[in-house]
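Objective 1b. Sequence-to-structure analysis of AB hydrolase-1 domain-containing protein.
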Amino acid sequence: MTDTTIHTQRFIIPILSKDSTIDIPLHVFVSEVNLSSSTISPLVVLFHGAGGDHYHFDKVVPVLVRSGFRVLTCDLRYHGESQPTVKENNVVFDMGTLCQDIFQVLLWLKEHHYNHTKEDKEKINCDLIFGGLSMGSILAQVCADQPTTKWESLGYTLRGMIMIASTSIHMIWPRIAWMDLYRDIESLDAAVLQAARQAITESAIHEDAKKEVARAMALITDQTLFLSLRACANSLAVPLLLNDEEQEQKPQFDDYPIRLPKQLLITGQADEHTVHITTALKSLNDGEGIKDTVLRIIQNSGHMVPLDQGVEVGNAIVDMFYNNEK
C-alpha cells in the first residue's frame, strides 16, 4: 500500500542582509510524501504575496504533494517568521535580492538536506516550477527570467511558471494602474498604507480567508509593506507616456517577454481587473507563440485565490504539470 502521509520539514536558513552583517533567518518548508524515496520529484516553489506568509498555501500543498510533487514554501524576508536577528537600519527589499535569497535557499538545501554523495549531487537533474500569488507571482517571474544556468548550476531544469492573480513583469499594457503609483517613491503616508492593508484583506471573499490575510498582515511593519509594494512596481515594464487620445492601448509586451513554455495563469472570478489583465496576457503569449499558456479563472474566489479556493488552485497546477504529461 502506498504511503500518502505528507511530511513537512522546517528549515531555518540564514541569509545575510545587504550589508552582509545581519542574519535574516528564512523559515523554509519542504513538503513531500516519501522522505526516504530515492526518486527526486519535481519541485514546486510557491511564494506568498505582500503581507502574507507560507500558511497561505496550506490548502494547495496537500493536493500537489499527493500528486507526486515536492513543494517548497517559505516566509520571505521580513514576512511571517523570517525576521532579522537584530534591528536593521537599512532594510533592503527588492526582487533581485529576494531572487538571490531563493538561490541561497536552494543551494543550502542541496548541500545540507539531501543525502547524496558528491557525485550524486552533481548528477541530480530535477524539474523546477516557480509560482506565486500576487507579489509572489512577480518574484516567480523574476526567478524564471534569470539565465537558466543559474538554476542548472544547482541541478534544476526550469520547467514552468505559475502566476496567480498577477500581471506580467514584461507587459506594458494593460496595467495595474495603482501599482505604478509606488514606482521609485521614497515614502508613503501611513493612512495610505493602512488603506492598502485593508484593501489586501478585503481582496479575499470568504470570511475565513479574510481572517487569515489579516493574521499574516499583522506580522509585518508598515515599512515592509511599503517596500513590498514598491518592489512590485519597480519590477514591472516601464509604462508608456500617453496623451488623452492614446489612453486605450492594445495589449503589448516590452521587448523581453518570458518565453518559458508551460505558463499557468490563475485568477479569481471576483477579481475582475486581474481577470482582464490575465486574459490579455494569455492573448499576448499566444500571439508570441509561447507554448502551453493556460488561463484558469477560479469561481467563487477573489484576489486571494489560494485562500478562497486552495484545492481548486492545486488541481489546476496538477492538471497543467502532471496530468498533461501522461
